[in-house]
Design brief:
single chain, 355 residues, alpha/beta, Rossmann fold, 9-stranded mixed sheet, 9 strands, 18% strand, globular
């Protein structure tokens, strides 16, 4: 015989549920304290400045294959397709596809500056979530990129740009019918399946960006000492991790991304036991002594500018330890989740890679 009413039983069960769920956060808090101690013993600004390549290899191992085999895989011939698309008004746009891994064709727009008579820097311009190379280039409409690609292309004496496409489009844009309905084209499902085989979607897409850079260097379009990368949101994330891993990228500009990874940890931004070795400050510390610019909108509705400033101060210790304090700059700006409308960041990296 029941001694409780259905309502009483439901209330008691719900209390037990919430108590159980809250318990996970208490467990997490304890584990984070332990991992903070492990991380502080593993890496600090001085240790990083003394053995940056070792830490870079460790970070690649955390992300996984194919970054762990980049040196051998990058020697494999890569098929490339190139087709003229249109005149943007400030550059000639070419659609390009690269078979970065067998069966994986990586797409992007190559924007060749109209100022062809000059030796120009080469800059990778990376779109964010729900974006694509065309939206970042504002081919069809204005958006929160605020002319990111156009302004970078024409700044100073100009630049040649490559705008890669990542798997970041909304679900409603997925083609139908899907060959594999259980997997679809979900970024997170693909990431989970890649993790099963020692990889991650971040590793594959970072690898793809680096392979395209191989091509542009080989073709004489990009020259080491004059290469930059910038992006908004997810684009800022990939600018940070690609710049951390690839020392051929001389200057990095990350807009609306650097932050507290415990507070903002999407599935594809975190990896197993990552926080025992690297959070955002440790990752971007690998960019030093090269140039790095980070910014956050004061009124960003996705990321808190206060926690950005705290992490940005941690980054500073890594650049100071490398004797490169002048090569790092961070700021908040009056704006939302958008690429800043002024050219301070563009100027900061352009000045470093210009001829």
């Amino acid at each position: 015989m029941f001694i409780e009413t259905e309502a009483e039983m439901t209330e008691r069960t719900m209390k037990a549920r919430w108590q159980y769920a809250d318990g996970f956060y208490k467990v997490l808090e304890g584990r984070r304290k332990i991992y903070t101690e492990i991380r502080e013993n593993y890496i600090d600004p001085k240790k990083c400045s003394e053995n940056r390549n070792k830490y870079r290899d460790d970070f690649a191992s955390i992300l996984g294959w194919p970054l762990t085999e980049y040196d051998s895989l990058s020697k494999t011939p890569m098929a490339v397709k190139k087709e003229y698309r249109y005149d943007t008004g400030y550059a000639e746009a070419y659609a390009m596809e690269f078979e970065v891994l067998p069966g994986l064709w990586f797409y992007g727009l190559y924007l060749e500056s109209k100022n062809k008579g000059e030796k120009l820097p080469f800059i990778i311009t990376q779109h964010g979530g729900c974006g694509n190379p065309e939206s970042a280039s504002e081919t069809f409409e204005e958006n929160n990129y605020n002319g990111m690609v156009r302004r970078t292309s024409v700044f100073g004496k100009g630049s040649n740009l490559f705008a890669p496409m990542l798997l970041l489009w909304p679900d409603r844009f997925h083609p139908e019918p899907r060959e594999k309905e259980d997997e679809g084209y979900s970024r997170y499902r693909i990431d989970a399946r890649l993790r099963q085989v020692g990889s991650s979607i971040s590793a594959v897409e970072c690898f793809a960006i680096r392979r395209t850079l191989d091509y542009f260097i080989k073709e004489g379009i990009a020259e080491i000492g004059h290469i930059g990368m910038l992006g908004l949101s997810y684009g800022g994330f990939f600018s940070m991790i690609t710049g951390a891993l690839d020392t051929r990228i001389d200057a990095v500009y990350s807009s609306c991304q650097l932050n507290d990874r415990y507070r903002y940890g999407r599935e594809d931004w975190i990896w197993s036991s990552e926080s025992s070795k690297f959070l955002d400050a440790e990752i971007t510390g690998l960019i030093a002594p090269r140039r790095f610019f980070a910014e956050e909108g004061v009124d960003d509705d996705l990321f808190d500018s206060g926690s950005f400033l705290k992490e940005a101060e941690r980054v500073k210790t890594y650049f100071d330890a490398a004797g490169a304090g002048d090569n790092y700059r961070f700021r908040t700006f009056p704006g939302t989740h958008e690429f800043a409308k002024d050219d301070e960041g563009i100027a900061f990296i352009y000045d470093y890679i210009k001829y």
